[in-house]
Amino acid sequence: MKITSRFTVAVHTLLVIYYFSGKEKTTSDFIAASVNVNPVVIRRTLLSLKGAGMIEVKAGSGGADIVKDLKEITLYDVYRAVECVDGDLFHFHENPNPSCPVGRSIHSVLDVHLADAQAALENSLRGVTLAQIVQEFEAHRGA
Amino acid sequence: MKITSRFTVAVHTLLVIYYFSGKEKTTSDFIAASVNVNPVVIRRTLLSLKGAGMIEVKAGSGGADIVKDLKEITLYDVYRAVECVDGDLFHFHENPNPSCPVGRSIHSVLDVHLADAQAALENSLRGVTLAQIVQEFEAHRGA
DNA sequence: TTTTATTGTAATGTCAAGCATTACATCTAA
DNA sequence: TTAGATGTAATGCTTGACATTACAATAAAA
Q1: CA of B105 to C1' of C24 (A)
Q2: Within 10 Å of residue A92's Cβ, how many Cβ atoms?
Q3: A136 chain-B contacts, CB cut-off 8 A
Q4: Is A67 within a domain?
Q5: Is residue A104 part of a domain?
Q6: Cβ contacts (< 8 Å) between A76 and chain B: which residues?
Q7: Structural domain tally of chain A?
């Protein structure tokens, strides 16, 4: 099991828009060439990012622009925008037997810990902004 | 996307073995009745848990026993035993374009943060032992 | 106003994973 | 030797991810 690549594609997409904004028309074709996926995949990604209020897309004329401060976009925001995970991260088996003492209580006991683990993951993503990622890009290029 | 229910099934399985050990013959059929899945699913789970050195299964005569201190089995150990996640949790798009500055560096920049998030999840699971879960069961039953 | 490039979106196909289930060879204890 | 289990292969179903084709709607430029 893996978390869908829509997430890393979306981050990549935002960075391409940021870096080429003003210099190139950042169409779905242009972005797709950098990410190396089908342009339709990028268009769907753009739709999600637009829905999350991060970008503006120009239908017809083409291109996208970032309309939110990169300091205020975290990896978690992107992760949410593309709906990597549908509610609970862990899939709990549906119908434990309520006439068994273990089956009866396992949900309430385990749920807390699963939620904690999921929160740990998401908080980690919340701790990283795109502004920070951009900085790291500069550092990486300098190296 | 969700992490496979093999994980919660495995935890449930271990708890059933623990609670009924000595009182009932904990066969795959018996456990399956509590978890409410097909017995073959339980047999495969038992294989994984046996492989991880947590239980002993009696082929032929039937039944399973825990052979490791519950204080030394964490949720992370179970999660690993049933192979919920194959290596990296996040699926990175495979071939970013190396002739684009973004495509060239995105892997190295992003990987660190993805690994951090995954580690946060796993460390959270590492912090909970089955012994603790059993205690919480008692508390839950008393309430 | 027509053309042209682009987005928005539906439809389709392929592939892999998860889970359920049947079937049966193998094993062990009574 | 028999009865009840496990170990394991095989099969089918369903779902989700991803790729791709196609085309209507849109907007800017000619």
Answers
A1: 54
A2: 19
A3: 109
A4: yes
A5: yes
A6: none
A7: 1
